[in-house]
Amino acid sequence: MQRGVQRREDDPDGDDRHADAAPYSSHLTCWRSTPLRSSRPRRHALGRTDAAVNDLRAALDATGVNGARGFAVEAAVLLAEVLAQRGAPGDAAEAADLATRATTDARMLGMVPWAARAEQVAANLHPTGTAPGPLTAREEEVAELVSRGLTNRAIAEALVVSERTAQNHVQHILTKLGFTARSQVAAWVVSRRQANR
Fold this sequence. Notes:
Elements: H1 25-28, H2 35-45, H3 49-66, H4 69-86, H5 91-109, H6 112-125, H7 137-147, H8 152-159, H9 163-177, H10 182-195
């Protein structure tokens, strides 16, 4: 057992590495075998879907606080799956948004199985191939201009926005697509054009 880590009653192995994170302990315990990995799915399986949704939302919020990006992907995918199955008003849209963000984050983190799982959730929500792209309509417009080789200043002039706004749009596009260079955005736009032909 590591120094400073206390054994918990619900962790008989004594290998809980998060026991010393007292401020977040109610949420972090979900990353061990206890709540998220076993009782959350059980709650959903037992018909306690609303409780599962609340618990997964709390877990997702906790990952934002503690910066655990990998766990954020897992929580987002699980929450998207539960929301998609629950089917309450607004659940499909929230599940689609979560799945889209989780797919991008999972790819950036090299979490291939979780990216595939998130893509499956999105595909199930849009079975006819009508899944929206990862970008907003405005970002699609900016991506198109980036693919033409326009600078941020030229994009700003074309869209009648400030240069800073154009720069923000480009940065959001890079982040959402998991890219680091404008040339990657241009290649992505070209590949989408060819796929739509």
